[in-house]
Amino acid sequence: MNYIPFEEYKRKWIFTHQSMPVAEEDYAEIKPMTEARGAQLWRDFVSTESPTPDHFGKGDWAATQSVWESSVNWQTPWEDEAELPEEFLAHFPWEDNVVVYFCYEKNNVIETRWSVFKKYWKNFLFYDDKPLLIGRKNKQVAMFEQNGIVKLGNRP
């Protein structure tokens, strides 16, 4: 089994919070991974050594400055606007059906589609401890910092 039932996800409240509820029919598109599956994806796409973004070090692509090409403020639009910043969207020339992974840490990864992430990005960012946005077959990546900046780059 690769996914936890949405109702059993420990952070389900970020998608059901009354101030920003996700449409119930979209719950099926928000797929929290089991700890084992999330850990495997983390090893395959993010790091074989570091369990969280705070622990990235030598050998982790996300700790390499050359990976990150630009940065954009995400926090102001999160507080004031409904849409992701244009500069952010321009970095991801993805079709709406692209499978994406929102990686909070090694054992907490959510799989969804690009269209669902764009629609509910504010919910995903209730936790902003450097989560990574990765496309399954794409090199573009984003890391959301707690200071309100999102770093945009391309993973090797």
Overview of the structural elements:
The chain has 156 residues and is an alpha+beta fold. 24% of the residues lie in helices and 23% in strands. It has 6 helices and 7 strands. The chain has helices at residues 13-16, 35-45, 75-80, 86-91, 114-119, 121-124; strands at 31-32, 68-73, 99-105, 108-113, 132-135, 140-144, 149-154. 28% of the residues are buried.
Give a quick rundown of the structure.
By secondary structure, this protein is of the alpha+beta class. It contains 6 helices and 7 strands, in the order αβαβααββααβββ.
Topology summary:
Elements: H1 13-16, E1 31-32, H2 35-45, E2 68-73, H3 75-80, H4 86-91, E3 99-105, E4 108-113, H5 114-119, H6 121-124, E5 132-135, E6 140-144, E7 149-154
Antiparallel strand pairs: 1-4, 2-7, 3-4, 3-5, 5-6, 6-7
Residue-averaged pLDDT:
94
Oligomeric state of the chains present here: single chain
**N- and C-termini, Cα separation:** 29 Å
Strand content: 15-25%
Strand segment count: 7
Strand order of the largest sheet: 1-4-3-5-6-7-2
Q: Categorize the overall geometry.
A: globular
The value of Rg in angstroms is 15 Å
Query: Quick one: biggest sheet?
Result: 7 strands, antiparallel
Which percent range fits the helix content?
10-25%
Determine the number of helices (DSSP H or I, runs of at least 4 residues): 6
- Segments where pLDDT lies below 50 for 5+ residues? none
SS-derived structural category: alpha+beta
